[in-house]
Structure formats: C-alpha cells, structure tokens
Amino acid sequence: MLEKVKMEYTEYFAEVVQVLSTRGCLLASWKNRPDQVNAMTIGWGMIGTIWGRPVFQVLVRPSRYTADLLKKEPFFSVNVLPKALDAAVMLCGSRSGRNHDKLAEVNLTAVAGAAHGAPVIEQSVIHYECHIVESNQFAPEAMVPDIRDGAYPSGDYHRIYWGQILDCRVNKSAMNTLFQE
Fold first, then answer.
1. Its pTM surpasses 0.70
2. Residue 27 contacts by C-beta under 8 Å, 6 or more apart in sequence?
3. Which of 6, 20, 105, 134 has its CA at 20 to 30 Å from residue 128's CA atom?
4. CATH fold for domain 5-169
C-alpha cells in the first residue's frame, strides 16, 4: 500500500460523508498510550469550519468506553476504511473496548499519527487526526421530540466532541476501494 499524503480537509468530502452515513467509520482513541488503541464505529458526524478552524464533530454516548478514554486523552482520529473491511468496522461497533482488543481481533494496525501522535488506523484510506477543543452534552429538552424519542428511547444522550482537524491524509491510489472490494 502506498503512503498516505496530506490533503485538505474538504477534499473527498462527499465520499467520506457517504461512507460515514452508510457503513460507518472508525473513531480511534488511546486505550493505554502508546501500547493499545480502542476503535469505535461511528455513523454520525460532521466536517466543517467552526471558530475559524477545521473540525470533525463526532458523537459519543457517555456510557461508551470511548467516552472514558476521550476524557483522559484529548486526541482522536476518524478513519475511513475500504469496503473490504466492512466486517471489521461492524465488529468494532458491536463490542466494548473495555473487554476486548478489537483491533487485534479484526487484524487492524494502529500507528501514531503525524500530529500529536493521535492514533490512526494504518489500513484506512483517509484519516483525520483531531484535538478536542470543546465538548458538550445534548440538551434533550431542546431537541425535536421525534428525534429525541426515536434516537434516544433509553435516554442515553450523546456527548458532542468538536475535534480540530490537525492533519488529514489520503492514500489516493486506494480511493476506489472505498466502494469496491
């Protein structure tokens, strides 16, 4: 596999949003720095500019192990994997990192990223390294009732993490693998 090259965070926006919303991406965070990384599947998120900075907004429920990790280490990455690794993405969304080394179970490799060493999944086609610059809890009383009732029947509301994108990279020769096996 060729080395990834720097890209603008707005490049490949449509492709990233399509993968995020249909198959999911992996949010990687340190479990035991630098020895272990946890990966969580995410299907909701946004890329944009806030406070004059490029950000990747991700949602993590406080009950998730990843939320505990993000309190300890303010760096994470969002990783867009090839379609052939959909089963790995699915497994990372079905088990807790509290009890499993999910990356080992699905044969994915984590490496330190170029910016502040945020953990990055080596097999990703695109990745965004982020630093948490703000987080806040949803206000259920302010939500539209059908969203609140449909997405949160148990009341386990997400926390929003605003990750300033410090670095993003792409393996251009592997872009076709996002949608083809």
1. yes
2. 39, 40, 41, 42, 58, 60, 66, 76, 77, 78, 79
3. 105
4. Pnp Oxidase; Chain A (2.30.110)
